[in-house]
Write a structure and sequence with these properties.
Shape: globular
Radius of gyration: 17 Å
Structural class: alpha/beta
Strand order of the largest sheet: 7-6-5-4-3-2-1-8
Strand content: 5-15%
Distance between the termini: 21 Å
Number of strands: 8
Number of helices: 12
Length: 249
Amino acid sequence: MARKPIIAGNWKMNMTPAEAKELIAALIPLVQDAAADVVICPPYLAIPTAAELVKGTNIALGAQNIHWAEKGAFTGEISAKMLKEVGVSYAIIGHSERRQYFGETDETVNMRAKAAIAAGITPIICVGESLEERETGKTEAIVSAQTEKALAGIEAKDVKILVIAYEPIWAIGTGKTATKEQANETIACIRNTVKKLYGEETAEAVRIQYGGSMNPKNAAELMAMPEIDGGLIGGASLKAEDFSKVAKY
């Protein structure tokens, strides 16, 4: 089964609405002929601006997080319904920075993923190991467990259309990148976990990105690997030219 590549830009806490407008205007013509699905994930305040600008283009809109409740006393949180109403179609869930700084757990990742699916928003579920875990040979055990817990109670039909992002924590924002072989091997492990849980058809359908410092220089070699279906791009997504080069690797 041929899986369509997906390149998503995680802007993190960067770009005011005005800056977002400038970046998107520059990006639209650069990626209009990209063969991959192209997604941008601005900060919440820039989402309405982005939604207007990407209408009628091949750029889809994502959020950087999503809450599991429909509404309620959750100060500072954003619900799936709110995001859906302004045009969001993807949501990053369980990014390592959310896990590291804001207490995200495998259980809350699972709850958020279910809320996104219920609202018709495609989750981009992040899994990945620390440098210590890799160096002590725990990579496969860690990413398999994270994948299994993230997908708990989610039906095969929904797993087929969601996205998983393998992002080694040690390669985010550090300039370090897993070798293409390391990334491919770990993504194969994630796919094998999905296969054990849901069978081969689902495992072959789900798209799994690499999310550790993919950039214009290494995108082509990473994307040439058979298990890697795309990238979750950090720093390189903040420059239109760089992001377009990754999207058109």
